[in-house]
Amino acid sequence: MCGHGSQTTVVGVSDSSFASLTTLRVGGEPRAIIRCTSAEQLAETVAALDAAGEELLVVGGGSNLVVADGPLDLTAVIVANGGISLVDATTVRAGAGAVWDDVVAFAVSHGLGGIEALSGIPGSAGATPVQNVGAYGAEISDVLTRVRLWNRRTGVDEWVPAESLDLAYRYSNLKFTARAVVLEIELRLRPAELSAPLRHLGGERLPLVQARANIVETRRSKGMVLDTADHDTWSAGSFFTNPIVATECADTIAAEVGEAGMPRFAQPDGREKLSAAWLIERAGFPRGYPGACAPARLSTKHTLALTNRGSATSDDIVALARDVRAGVEKRFGVILEPEPVWVGVGI
Ligand SMILES: Cc1cc2nc3c(=O)[nH]c(=O)nc-3n(C[C@H](O)[C@H](O)[C@H](O)COP(=O)(O)OP(=O)(O)OC[C@H]3O[C@@H](n4cnc5c(N)ncnc54)[C@H](O)[C@@H]3O)c2cc1C
C-alpha cells in the first residue's frame, strides 16, 4: 500500500490491536496496520486509502487516543518517518515519526532552548502541532515555524506556516478534522545556556540539561512519563482540558468550595482557566478512584489521568470518564471536555 516503499510493513490484523498501539492500551483490531517509514510513503498510503474510500486513522505514538473495543473497520497508518536535523544554526527539522522527546534531547544537546519544558511528553513530533502540545508554561506554538502537510482534500504536499493551523490551547485545525497529515515539522529555537523561566520552580532558570532532567523527574512523579511497569502511566495523559469559564462562574465555584487559593488563570478574552484536576478532586473523585479492584481508575499520582490497571477495556475507560464528567457537572455546572481524540466511541 505504501507505493514503492520496500520498507513498508503490513501487519496481519490477527496479531495486533489498538491495545498494542496506544498508551492507554485499549482498543480493538483495525482492518490492517500499515507502517510508513518515509514522508513520501506516508502521503502515498493516505492518498491511496482515500482514493479507495477506505477509513483510516493516522497513528503516531498512540498517546492521545481512545479507541473503541472490538474490530474496527479502518486501517491504522503508522507514522514512522524519523529523522532529526539542523536546517541552520537555530532551526530544527523533524520527521513526523520522530519520537518527540528525542527532538527535545537533540535540541538540548545542541545548546538550543525553547522546548526543554516539553521534555518527557510521549508521542511523535508530527502529532505535536495537532493539539499544540504544552507543559510547564511552554507550547509547541511558541517555536513552531512551519509544517509539511499532506493535504487530504487537495492532494498537495506543501509546507505551511504555523499560523495557518489556528494553534490554541490543546487545539489546532488538524485536531478532530483529519484534514491533513503532518509529514515534517520545523522549529525555530534560540541558542541558550539557561532554560526559559520554569513556572513550577517559581520562575527559576536552570542550565538546559538540568532543566530537562528536572522536568522529566517532575513529570515522572506524577505518572506523566511512560513506564511499562507503572500502571499510573497507562493513560492518555491529562484526560480533560482545563475549562475556561466566565469570571462569575469562577467566583461562584470559589465561594461554594470556600477554600483559599483555587487555581484560576486570567485569559486574554477576560474569562478564566480553571484546573480540571482541582475540580475533579473537589467534586469527590480522589486519586485512585473508584478503588483498588476497578480495571480503570484515576491515576494514584495525578487526578487528571484516567488509567488502565492492566485489564481495562475501552468501555471501562469511557464509563469512568462519563462518571467523572457527570460528577463535576453536577457539583459545579462545568462540563469537562476530553483532551484525547476518540475513535469509534464517544463520551
Ligand atoms: C503519560 C502521558 C503524558 C502526556 N503529557 C502531555 C503533556 O504534558 N502535554 C500535552 O500536550 N500532551 C500530553 N500527552 C498527550 C500526548 O502525548 C500528546 O498529545 C502527543 O502529542 C500525542 O502524540 P502521538 O504521536 O502519540 O499521537 P497519537 O495519539 O498517535 O494521535 C493523536 C491524534 O493526532 C493525530 N496524528 C498523529 N500523528 C499525526 C500526523 N503525523 N499527522 C496528522 N495527524 C496526526 C492522530 O490521528 C490522532 O487524531 C500525554 C500523554 C501521556 C500518555
What does the model show?
By secondary structure, the protein is α+β, with helices and mostly antiparallel strands. The protein folds into three domains: 9-79, Uridine Diphospho-n-acetylenolpyruvylglucosamine Reductase, domain 2; 84-221, Uridine Diphospho-n-acetylenolpyruvylglucosamine Reductase, domain 3 (2-Layer Sandwich); 231-343, Alpha-Beta Complex (Uridine Diphospho-n-acetylenolpyruvylglucosamine Reductase, domain 1), CATH 3.90.78.10. Helix content is 21%, strand content 24%. The chain has six helices and 20 strands. It has a five-stranded antiparallel β-sheet with strand order 6-7-13-11-12. A four-stranded mixed β-sheet has the order 1-2-5-3, with helices on one face. A three-stranded antiparallel β-sheet has the order 15-17-16. A hairpin with a 5-residue loop joins β16 (264-266) and β17. The longest helix is centred in the last third of the chain and has 19 residues, at 314-332. It is globular. The two termini are 33 Å apart. The structure holds flavin-adenine dinucleotide. The site of flavin-adenine dinucleotide has 34 residues, from β3, β9 and β13. Keywords: Cell cycle, Cell division, Cell shape, Cell wall biogenesis/degradation, Cytoplasm, FAD, Flavoprotein, NADP, Oxidoreductase, Peptidoglycan synthesis. Cell wall formation. One of its GO terms (biological process) is cell division.
